[in-house]
Model the fold of this input.
Amino acid sequence: MNSPARTLMVGLGARGKKWARIMHEEQKSQTVGYVDLDDDNLEWAQTMYEADPKNCYNDMGQALKDLQPDFVVLATPPMDRYENVMKVFESGAHLLSEKPLSLDFDEGIRMAKAAEDAKLGFAVGLNFRWQHCILKAREILRSRRIGAPRFAGYSYWRNRDGYAPFLNRFPLTMRQPMLYEQVIHHIDSIRFVYDSEVERVTCRCSNPPWSMYRDDATTIAIFDMTAGLQVNYFGTWSGQTKLDQFLWRTDCDDGALFQYELFKDLRIIRGSENDVMEKIPLPEQEQLVDDARVMVSEILDQLAEGNLHPEPTAIDHLKTFGIIAACEESNNTGLPVEMDEFFDRHGMPSHWR
Ligand SMILES: NC(=O)c1ccc[n+]([C@@H]2O[C@H](COP(=O)([O-])OP(=O)(O)OC[C@H]3O[C@@H](n4cnc5c(N)ncnc54)[C@H](O)[C@@H]3O)[C@@H](O)[C@H]2O)c1
Done:
């Protein structure tokens, strides 16, 4: 791989514009081209980052052929991800794809296998893992300072305006938008912070009459995790009223941990006889940018060292993606889903679990 890595940006919508900035500022990368179906977005790259019009494309396949990048950042909607990911690996480039990998779990497995066969690095953008509050919560729970986590409640109420000018439009009409676009970040954070895997999923999805989303905007789930940990999950994009609320509380053997806002505000109570909350000081972060910045910098370091499984790996993402697909299945059947059985049924190799 060249140093700096020759990077192709694919998809310059709401998320891709953030990625364009991050990659423009990242010293280990040099953006060699931009791809989007919409010419306005390519003109934006020319205005913002002095992109040469001859390196701006509507067709990713042509851009890959002409520019021969080392690294691709793929920030397109998940519906056509499979085709795009396969083309990137055929071209010989390493890939950082946005989540979710697809809306079809079997396609996800095939994409991860394609990267293995091509001996190319494949990471998925689970940038929430690099938020200060997430890293700190993981560190506290791993240290067992307040003992082991036993049960938790994760509660996310949002009134998300899917027509807001700075947001994407595809979640308004896609299948299970809340699960595949939002809960996927939450369950990935849950797995990461607890260092624990989900063994059984029970899930119900619904859509309130006032929802602007065509399919379910609300998810209620129970996650039975390793070591007997139970997580009670509630998430909605269609909260009534404009009041958003967030609380992630984890009760441990000798205290409890609380996150009061989605991206910040971590608090702790030490001991079981105490009701005094201590706020844990954490540095400020630009939401969804500074976390991604550290993530991609580490991915480029790992690729430069020849590590073809840069964190967060696509293979690891399959475990989060599988839980989301199992949530959808549980909602459809009304039954719990055992994750081992789910992974067996989908042919997920045992050494990937
Ligand atoms: N990790 C995060 O924090 C985070 C935040 C927001 C969105 N996302 C993810 O990023 C992805 C993109 O979301 P978005 O909000 O930018 O959506 P968006 O609809 O705003 O933008 C998608 C862009 O991709 C372009 N596009 C579509 N197909 C293409 C193709 N084949 N070739 C080139 N360009 C193509 C579209 O023209 C559009 O400009 C989604 O998977 C979403 O889940 C992640």
Summary: Residues 14 and 164 are 11 Å apart (CA to CA). The domain at 128-279 is CATH 3.30.360.10 (Dihydrodipicolinate Reductase; domain 2).
